[in-house]
Each structure stands twice: as structure tokens, then as C-alpha cells.
Amino acid sequence: MAKSFKHQLSISLPFTFLFFFTTLSFTENEELGNLLRFKTSINDPKNSLSGWSNTSSSSPTHHCNWTGITCTRAPSLYVSSINLQSLNLSGEISDSICNLPYLTHLDLSQNFFNQPIPLHLSRCLTLETLNLSTNLIWGPIPDQISEFSSLQVLDLSSNHVEGKIPEDLGLLFNLQVLNLGSNLLTGSVPSSVGKLSDLVVLDLSENRYLVSEIPSFIGKLDKLEELLLHRSGFHGEIPTSFVGLTSLRILDLCLNNLTGEVTRSIVASLKNLVSLDVSQNKLSGSFPSGVCSGKKLINLSLHSNSFDGLLPNSIGECLSLERFQVQNNGFSGGFPVGLWSLPKIKIVRADNNRFTGHVPDSVSLASALEQVEIDNNSFSGEIPHGLGLIKNLYKFSASENEFGGELPPNFFDSPVLSIVNISHNKFLGKIPELKSCKKLVSLSLAGNAFTGEIPPSLADLHVLTYLDLSDNKLTGLIPQDLQNLNFALFNVSFNRLSGAVPHSLVTGLPASFLQGNPGLCGPGLANSCSSDQSSFHKTGVKALLLLLICLALALATSLVMSYRYYRKKLQFKSGWQSEFYYPLRLTEHELMKMMNESSPSGSEVYVLSLSSGELIAVKKLVNSRNISSKALKAEVRTIAKIRHKNTTRILGFCFTDELIFLIYEYTQNGSLRDMLSSPGDQLQWSVRLKIALGVAQALAYISKDYVPHLLHRNLKSTNILLDKDFEPKLSDFALDQIVGETAFQSVIHASCYTAPENNYSKKATEEMDVYSFGVVLLELVTGQRAEKAEEGTSGESLDIVKHVRRKINLTNGAAQVLDQKILSNTCQADMLKTLDIALDCTAVVAEKRPSLLQVIKALEGISSSVSTSTEKLPVSA
Ligand SMILES: *[C@@H]1O[C@H](CO)[C@@H](O)[C@H](O)[C@H]1NC(C)=O
Ligand SMILES: *[C@@H]1O[C@H](CO)[C@@H](O)[C@H](O)[C@H]1NC(C)=O
Ligand SMILES: *[C@@H]1O[C@H](CO)[C@@H](O)[C@H](O)[C@H]1NC(C)=O
Ligand SMILES: *[C@@H]1O[C@H](CO)[C@@H](O)[C@H](O)[C@H]1NC(C)=O
Ligand SMILES: *[C@@H]1O[C@H](CO)[C@@H](O)[C@H](O)[C@H]1NC(C)=O
Ligand SMILES: *[C@@H]1O[C@H](CO)[C@@H](O)[C@H](O)[C@H]1NC(C)=O
Ligand SMILES: *[C@@H]1O[C@H](CO)[C@@H](O)[C@H](O)[C@H]1NC(C)=O
Ligand SMILES: *[C@@H]1O[C@H](CO)[C@@H](O)[C@H](O)[C@H]1NC(C)=O
Ligand SMILES: *[C@@H]1O[C@H](CO)[C@@H](O)[C@H](O)[C@H]1NC(C)=O
After folding, report:
1. For residue 574, what are the contacts with CB-CB under 8 A and spacing of at least 6?
2. Who is most buried in 438, 468, 641, 855, counting CB within 10 A?
3. Which pLDDT score is estimated for 674?
4. Nearest in space to 183 (alpha carbons), one of 256, 225, 133, 112
């Protein structure tokens, strides 16, 4: 129609253009006037109707060309349709347009008209379509609605229409489309609706207060193609009269409170059905086995002789069916097997029911199939080869069923496959190769009995982000290349995997996703891949290369060493030199003598009593660095100048070309390790908190405030000394500055204080100190030693980080790990908070650890609550 109109204009306009207004006929002028009157009562914030004007000087536009106006040619030019949707209009809908004698369509949808239903529009005697959808229309539907006698399409959806649906609605005999969805209607559907025999679309969805049974007269509407009753308050059974809905294409009853069985009635109306959704109700019973499988249905219908007046062989062929959604109900019995082979079926959702049955090989005929969700049922049998032949399948979710056997080799062949969840079935055998499914995002095979290796082809699936292979019987290595993927979840726990875990998989994820594989090793795991044995066969070439490099290095080092040996012999015959920053009455010879006579206390620290009665602590270091004595003195001085109330003072040092003795002030109470493991008086919680805070502050001082910025790099409870007031004194910090990086690395053996990334990251970072600090915090909170021989096992040492995490995971009670010797109602909450900080600090991923300043702030928060609430008992909830 629009086309022919334009055609006509293009012929007439060249002649009439200059004399436009004079050539406008009387009726055209009338129409124009009516439109302008209609416009005057409308608010138009976007000026969408600015072209609706007869005064526009430059180029006056024929009103048939105005925004939203369509004209009809017969008998002459008349406005037939006004479509002003989505223009932010508000104001009054004037009935002046009812003077347009040929107006049939009025669409004011998606605007802001805020008023009751404009009944005066019933004056528009020719109006066939009234679309007021998505406005702010309020109030009830009055009986006078029946005056819209010519209406064929009434769309009042998505407004605030309330009250009961009036009986008189049934007088709109011409109605073909009635959409009252998404309103606030109440009561039930009046029986008069059954008289609307021309209805093609009936939408009463999303009316929460429309609480009633589905009236059986709906079944009389045999022209109905769309019946949308979802998300309302319908309860009771689906009426058997639905058998009469032979034209039905879309049936949506989801999210109601429907009960009973659907079978017979639905089956009957399946003939032309494109979409069936009865999901999320309380429906039960079983579907007759013949549903949607043409032939058998002849038998079905003959036996259950209840389909009044229907041709038996037309039932249930379902040749048009695209969606079948029956999920979240209580259906049981055999799943209609014919459904799997329908030519147009796209979506099958039957999850959370109690269906039995299997997926037939003929599923390959369902070439349009995109989505299958049948989780949490009792499906069984094997996955057929036919499934892998479907090229449109993007989701296959069948977890929690009783499927078994081996997956067919082509299981993952659909090129658009994105989501696969077949967890918790009884699958066995190998995981097939994944070659074609480059779009796979999520794969869950958990809780089956898969054997063999993790297919390396997984690493080629670049968008794979969710991989759950947990709880199977997989063996072998975790493919190295998997670490190139960007996983949000990677769970291979409880398999029989072995060997080194690829680095970024260890560091990027909590270790619990690897648990239950005793053969796996890597930082943060029970085994830390001591030798390269396991990775040797895999990366044999690399290892060999490494070996060669090592040999070369060793050779070079020994050459350098022997050269240095000779040189040093010549240079430093004189032996000991010393430098004191504190008036110590001590000569190098005395020191040497005393050192020979005593043995180190704790860790490589000698406590010596001077003739003056003073006590000093001496730390012995190997001097393997080739720097001048001047440079060495400068280095030690840098560290000795640190002054903080929580650092141990360096009183001086002695050195030869082979050894360095660092002299520290002596602290009364030994090391934190000693105090924690002594059987006697326990450090109370407030003291422990003070120690934690002091240590954190000292660490922050040396790394942030002191210039040059230094890292501790060797924090342990043996290096935290306590003075007579139990004020902590950090010692042994920044020794790398004195002995040099290489020697430092050999002095420091990896322990459970060492952050996991230390093994491969060359650069020392604050995060590593934070990790060590976290381990100390764990010792303070649990009262356990960071490392000790594990009970029962011989020789294996217990890593406190793992121990605590395991315990928390197992028992779900963090309170379990707290030091029972000092635990009280008063301090439990604070200890738990501190435990949280400790766990954060010992995060496997360095970036996840808090900064020292954040740690201090958190600890200060806790300790301020200690000082104010020590006497208060916690209020029990
Ligand atoms: C524009 O329309 C109004 C209302 O119909 C009419 O009074 C006026 O004369 C028209 N102006 C022109 C320029 O045609
Ligand atoms: C039209 O309405 C939309 C939705 O409320 C709003 O975001 C937009 O700003 C409005 N435009 C004008 C010009 O008023
Ligand atoms: C009507 O619209 C068409 C297409 O937008 C345009 O070519 C024609 O000039 C317009 N006619 C008038 C009278 O404005
Ligand atoms: C009414 O308008 C809305 C929004 O513009 C549209 O989605 C809907 O299909 C229309 N109703 C009918 C019955 O055409
Ligand atoms: C379904 O019925 C229950 C009570 O039987 C009621 O609480 C619930 O709101 C109903 N749901 C709907 C969508 O009407
Ligand atoms: C119908 O059912 C009978 C017995 O139930 C069976 O013998 C017959 O083969 C069936 N016919 C068809 C066409 O399936
Ligand atoms: C499994 O389906 C049943 C209904 O058959 C339902 O009651 C149950 O909640 C579902 N389980 C899960 C985990 O959704
Ligand atoms: C796979 O299915 C299991 C069990 O139904 C469910 O817990 C899990 O969340 C599903 N995984 C995904 C990625 O949907
Ligand atoms: C990993 O898998 C195990 C075993 O199936 C399970 O217990 C654990 O909750 C899973 N972890 C995550 C984060 O899904």
C-alpha cells in the first residue's frame, strides 16, 4: 500500500508542488486539521512531530508524508494509520483523530501516556488496531470497552491496568488479537472470552493476581495460534478441552501453579505446535510413548479413544515443533522418544523431572537441534553416534542421569558446541579428542569414571574457561599447554593424575581444585616436585639442554673460584677485619675464640657473653662475594643504620674473605619460635597480636620508609626475637645486601615460609615477604610450628599453610585450627579475623595478597577492638 502511494505522489507532486495548499482538497484539509488538533494535546519532548505542520515555510510536506502517518489511496488520499511508537510522547490522546474516516490503525505503544484507557477512542468507528502497549495506562477495563466494536487487535500489555476482566469484553466479536499481558488484572477469565471465536492470539501472561483455573472454554477457540498464560496465577489442571486447539502454534504455560497430567490434552494439540512451554509448574504423570512419532500414534489414539472428533493420524506428528520445554516439573515415565528425531526441533528442555529413556541414534535426524537440557532425570543408555552428527548443537547438558558407556568418538564434533555438562553419570572409557568444537566454553565431565589421559587437544580450545574433570579416574600428566587458557574454573581434583602441575595452573587457582591426586606435584601441593623426574620424560629435550647449561655454568664457576682463591690468598693474608657501630669491648680474636667454643642456638645464631657481662647474638655468614672490603662495609652499614623499635640493632661485624660474623643486640626472650613451642607459659592473644603488628610495621618500615627500600626475604618465627616486654625485634633482614644474591639464594633453603612463586620468579617482591608474614601469623593464631614432622608419616614435614587450609576445608570450622591453649570467648572472634588475614597473606596467587599497609590497617583494627573490649563478653546470637 505504501509503495503504490509513493508512486502516486511522485506523479502528482511535480505538478502541484508550487501550489500545494491550494490544491489540497477539502477533505485533505480536514484531515490535516484533525491531525494538528491531535498534536496540540500531545507532549513531544523529542520534537518528533515537528514535521506535523502546515506552516513550514521552506518545504511544506503533505500530511501523508508526516512522521508516523500512512495514507490509503482509495477512494482518494486518506489517513489510514498512525504509528507513533517509541517517541517519548505523553499528554492527552485526543479523539480528534476519530474524525479521520479511514483510520484503521493507531499505535501509540512505548510512550508515556499516563491515563485510563481512552474510551472516547471508541468513536473511531473504523479503528481495527489499537496498540497502547508499554505506556502508563492505569485503571480498570470498563464495560464500555465493548463499544470498540470494530476492533480486531487490542494491545494493552505492559501497563498498569487493574481489576477484573469485564464480561463485556466478549462482545468484541471481531477480536483476533487480545493482549492484556503484564498488567495488574485480578480475578478470573470471564466466560465471555470463549465467545471470541476469531481469536488468534490470547495473551494474559504476567498477571500475578489473575488467580484461577485455566477456563475450559479456551479450548473452544479453535483459531487460536498463540496462547500465552505464563507467569500468572493459574492453577489446577490443564483443561482437556485443549484438545480443540488444533491451530495452536505457541503454547506457553510456564511459571504457574498447574498440577495434574498434561498428556492427552497437550498431545492432541501438538499437531501444528511450534513451541510448547509448560515448564516450572507442578505437573506430573507421563507422556504416552507414541507422542511425536507419527505411526505409533495411530495405535495410541485408537486405544485411548478420547480425542473427540480428531483424525487419529494427525495427532502428535509434531513436524513443526521447535521448542519442547517441560523442565522443573514432576514428570515421570518414558521420555517421548520421537521428540529426538523431529526435523525442526531446536530446544529440548526436560531437566529436573523423573523421566526415563534414552537418546536414540536417530537423533541425527534432528538437524536443527541446538540445545538439550535434560539434567537431573533418570535417562540411561549410551550417547549415540548420531548426536555428534548434529552441526547446530551448542549446548548439551545431561548431568545427574544414568547415562553410561563410552562417549562416541564424534561426541564433540558440533562446530558450535559451547556448553557440555554430562557430570554425574556413569560414563567410562577415554575422553574423545576435541577437534572441531572451537567454541567450547564450558566442559563438565565430573563425577563419572573416565579413564586415560586428559586430551591435549583441550589446550587448542581457546575460549574454554570452565573445565571440571573432577572425580574421575584420569591418569597421566596435566597437559602443559592447558596453562595457556584463561580458566575461570579448573577442577581436576580426585583423579589419578601425576607429575608436575603446569605453573600458571598452580599459581592461578586454589590448590583444592587439584586435591585428591596424590601423584601431582608443584608449589603449594603436598609434593613439591623435588627433582625434575616427572617432567623429564615429557620435556626430555628441555631437561637435557638445562643439564648442559648447568654443566657449563659449573665449569665456569669453578674456574672463577680457583682464580679468586689465588687472588684472595694474595690480597687478604691479614685475615680479620671488623667494624663496630656500638662500643663493644671485643677483639676479633676473642670473637673467634668464643665462636669456636660455643654452638649456635636456634638457627645459626650464637649467643655470646662478653667479659663485660653483656650478651650479644652473632650470625655467621659465608662471604662468597667478590667485593672489596670497602663495599662490604658500605653494605652492612646501610642495614645497620636502620632504626625502628621492631628491628634488632646490628652492633657491628667482623669478616674475613671467607666468613662474615654479624653481631646483633641480644634479646631477652629468645625467638618467637622458642616462645610458641615452649611448653610453659603461653603467649596470650593480646601479646601475639602486638607481636604481629610490630613485625608488620617493621617490615613496612624497611620496605617503604627506609631508603634504600629493602625486603626482608627471610622472615620466619626464628628470626623474630622478643625483648623482655615481648616487643618483637626483626632480625636477619636484607642479608642479600651483604652476601649478594647468588650466595643468598644458596643460604636460604626453600621452606614453608617461602612464597610459591619464589621458585620461578627471579625478582624478590613485597608479596613474598607478605607470604612469609602470613605463615608467621598462622603460627601465632594456631600455636603450631610452621614446619614439623607430620604425625604418622616419617620424614614428611607439615606445611602449616596446607595444614590449616585442609583443616578448614574438611571441617568447615575455622575455629578448629585456633590455638586451643589460649582460646577464649573474648578473643575467638579476633583470632578468626586474624586467621582470615593470614589466609589472605598466604594466597597462592601473589596478586591476591594484601599489601603490608593493608595488613597493618587490618591488624590495627583488630587490636583497637581488643583494647576496648577485653573485658566484655561477646553477645551470643
Ligand atoms: C494550517 O492549519 C490551520 C488549521 O487547520 C488553518 O487554520 C491554517 O489556515 C493553516 N495554515 C495554512 C498556511 O494553511
Ligand atoms: C526518552 O525516554 C527515555 C527513556 O525514559 C529517556 O532515556 C530519554 O532521555 C527520553 N528522551 C527525551 C528526549 O526525553
Ligand atoms: C514524501 O517523502 C518522500 C520520501 O521520503 C519524498 O521523496 C517526498 O519528497 C515527500 N513528499 C513531500 C510532499 O514532502
Ligand atoms: C504493539 O506494540 C508493541 C511495541 O511497539 C509491539 O511489540 C506489539 O507487537 C504491538 N502489538 C501488536 C498486537 O501488534
Ligand atoms: C502457587 O501456589 C502457592 C501455594 O500453593 C503459592 O504460595 C504461590 O504463590 C503460587 N504461585 C503462583 C505463581 O501463583
Ligand atoms: C498397534 O498395536 C498393536 C498391539 O498393541 C500392534 O500389534 C501393532 O503392530 C501396532 N500398529 C502399529 C502401526 O504400530
Ligand atoms: C531434581 O529434580 C527433582 C524433581 O524431579 C527436584 O525435586 C529436585 O529439586 C531436582 N534437583 C535439583 C538439584 O535441582
Ligand atoms: C553441571 O551440572 C552439575 C550438576 O547438575 C551442576 O552442579 C554444575 O553447576 C553444572 N555445571 C555447569 C557449568 O553448568
Ligand atoms: C572440585 O571438584 C570436587 C570433586 O568433585 C568438588 O568437591 C569441589 O567442590 C570442586 N570445586 C569447585 C570449586 O567446583
Report:
1. none
2. 855
3. 85
4. 133
CATH of 16-136, one of 3.40.1570.10, 1.20.1730.10, 3.40.50.450, 3.80.10.10: 3.80.10.10
CB atoms within 10 A of CB 597: 9
Average pLDDT for residues 78-101, to the nearest whole number?
Answer: 94
Whether ligand 2 lies within 6 angstroms of the CB of 46 is answered as yes
Q: Is 663 a residue whose pLDDT tops 70?
A: yes
Give the span between the Cα atoms of 176 and 715, in whole angstroms. Answer: 81
Distance CA 347, CA 355 (A): 17
Whose C-alpha lies nearest to ligand 1, atom 12? Answer: 54
Q: Where are the beta strands (DSSP E) in 328-453?
A: 330-334, 347-349, 354-357, 371-373, 378-381, 395-397, 402-406, 419-421, 426-430, 442-444, 449-451
CB atoms within 10 A of CB 507: 23
Asked if 693 contacts 622 with a C-beta cutoff of 8 angstroms, the reply is no
DSSP 153: E
Query: Which ligand has an atom closest to residue 134 CA?
Result: 4
Q: What DSSP element (H or E) covers 772?
A: helix 766-782
Q: How far is CA 320 from the centre of its chain?
A: 36
| pLDDT band at residue 617 using 50, 70 and 90 as cut-offs | confident
Distance in Å, CA 102 to ligand 1 centroid = 22
Q: What is the pLDDT of residues 259-282, one digit of tens each?
A: 998 766 666 666 789 999 999 999
What's the gap in Å between 172 CA and the centre of ligand 4? 19
Q: Give helix 766-782 / helix 685-700 axis angle, nearest 10°.
A: 170
User: 252 by DSSP, 3-state: which?
Assistant: strand
> Which residue CA neighbors atom 1 of ligand 6 most closely?
299
The identity of residue 782, as a single letter, is T
Where are the CATH 3.80.10.10 domain residues in the chain? Answer: 16-136
Side chain identity at residue 481, one-letter code: D
Strands 605-609 and 496-500: unpaired
Which 8-state DSSP code applies to residue 372? E
**442 in Cβ contact with 469 (< 8 Å):** no
Count of positions (residues) in the chain:
877
- Cβ-based neighbours of 215, under 8 Å, separated by 6 or more: 188, 189, 191, 193, 194, 239
Taking domain 671-877, whether its CATH number is 1.10.510.10 is answered by yes
